[in-house]
Design brief:
Layout (H helix, E strand, L loop, with lengths): L8 H18 L5 E4 L2 H8 L4 E7 L5 E6 L1 H7 L5 E3 L3 H5 L8 E4 L6 H10 L4 E4 L1 H9 L3 H21 L10 H14 L6 E2 L6 E2 L2 E5 L37 E10 L2 E10 L6 H19 L7 H10 L3 H4 L4 E2 L2 E2 L4 E3 L6 E5 L12 E4 L2 E4 L3 E4 L2 E6 L2 E4 L8 E2 L1
Parallel strand pairs: 1-5, 3-4, 5-6, 11-21
Antiparallel strand pairs: 1-2, 2-3, 7-8, 9-10, 10-11, 12-13, 14-15, 14-16, 16-19, 17-18, 19-20
Helix pairs in contact: 1-6
């Protein structure tokens, strides 16, 4: 067993304390909360097993594990782990249930809820997905340290290893495979998680020139053709690298669950054209200008507005995508999921706090050249945002 990866009793207690305080602040009369998603179960217990975590306001929380109770006890320092064959076993320990239950709704399937409500009878359910995101958005010192280490390795991969992998004739998908292999050597955890249902991918994606302009359902500025219409991930198996191509590599790197996000842009076979250099420079300046105002107490919606006000209208047209396939944000929180709170966008008004981590990714599509831009991950500190994935924002010529 890798005992050094176990979350300590103190770490777990701190996370539970923050959750209880947030619940009491927002839902003053709460009595019972239910945690059921894999990532949040790990966040509170330190192990990712099938089950439910029942958190009572006045009692100790109980992690009811369906499978594997043995592994849960091997991996977790959580003080109250019990086995169950079904929800019937758990509900028997709660003879009196409150009228309202607070639970995750975004991850719960209808079949899960029907089975849960068969045994746990409540008059009302209240979703706490946004509240949980808010709690997780402020990293503990343990979490922040893992992300700083992830960022260090991420920079090495993007700036030192990947340039050596670019060879004429390699396909986008093949290049992803080569990058994945190098990432594993650097300690990469093997996957990147997104908050949506089935939101896991092996690494990220690669796009050669015009491939980065392909329309996508992904909620981001760029996407990829993918290995097929059924698998719009990684990159094309047929688009091969040619001299003069721009190579966009957008991927997460994670250590023990905690990720950083970074986009690197390479010019293969020489220096890029002036329009590419100019667009990249404007994106980089926008990123650093945004980072300068990401201080504790600053409001994401106001940061977003102020950052865009510093750009000209021509540059803003098509920013964060290509033509009509654009998104309305400049950055996103990151941690156990690639896409977390806060989001640097309109409508996000909860002030920034120290130990939040945010990836800024200004990008802009240019016809014939592809998606041009950059992305780095920043840790919010008392003195401002600190980049943890590398500060040398430039197009890497290979």
């Amino acid at each position: 067993m890798h005992k050094e990866q176990r979350l300590t009793v103190e770490e777990l207690a701190l996370r539970m304390k923050r959750f209880r305080e947030k619940m009491t602040t927002i839902h003053s009369d709460w009595e019972l909360a239910v945690i059921s998603s894999d990532v949040n179960l790990y966040y509170f217990t330190g192990t990712m097993q099938r089950g439910i975590l029942l958190i009572e306001r006045e009692e100790k929380a109980v992690f009811w594990v369906r499978r594997s109770i043995e592994r849960a006890r091997m991996e977790s320092c959580f003080s109250n782990i019990r086995g169950m064959k079904s929800f019937r076993d758990a509900v028997g320990e709660y003879p009196i249930l409150p009228n309202t239950v607070y639970l995750e709704k975004n991850q719960a399937t209808l079949s899960w809820y029907e089975m849960f409500s068969k045994y746990f009878h409540f008059e009302k359910t209240v979703g706490i997905d946004r509240l949980l995101q808010s709690v997780r958005s402020v990293k503990t010192e343990y979490e922040a340290a893992l992300q700083v280490e992830s960022g260090r390795r991420h920079r090495i991969l993007a700036e030192e290893k990947i340039p050596l992998l670019l060879k004429e004739g390699i396909s986008e998908a093949e290049l992803v495979g080569e990058i994945f292999n190098e990432a594993i050597k650097l300690g990469y955890q093997g996957l990147s998680r997104f908050s949506g249902v089935n939101g896991e991918m092996s690494l990220g994606y690669v796009a050669f020139s015009e491939s980065g302009l392909y329309p996508t359902s992904f909620d981001g500025p760029g996407g990829t053709i993918g290995t097929s219409f059924a698998t719009p991930f990684l990159g094309s198996t047929t688009r091969r690298l040619r001299k003069g191509d721009m190579v966009l590599v957008d991927f997460g790197f994670g250590c023990q669950g905690y990720s950083t996000d970074k986009t690197a842009l390479y010019s293969f076979g020489g220096k890029p054209d002036a329009i590419v250099q100019d667009t990249f420079q404007q994106c980089a300046e926008l990123m650093w200008r945004t980072a300068e105002i990401m201080n504790p107490g600053a409001v994401p919606a106001e940061i977003y507005k102020a950052a865009l006000n510093g750009t000209d209208s021509e540059f803003r047209h098509g920013l964060m995508g290509y033509r009509n396939n654009t998104v309305k944000f400049l950055g996103h929180g990151i941690g156990l999921h690639i896409d977390e709170y806060p989001v640097i966008a309109e409508g996000f008004n909860e002030p920034l706090q120290s130990n939040m981590t945010i990836a800024l990714e200004p990008k802009k599509g240019i016809e014939h050249y592809g998606l041009i831009g950059t992305e780095e991950t920043f840790l919010i500190t008392e003195s401002g945002a600190v980049c943890i994935t590398g500060i040398d924002s430039k197009i890497i010529c290979v």
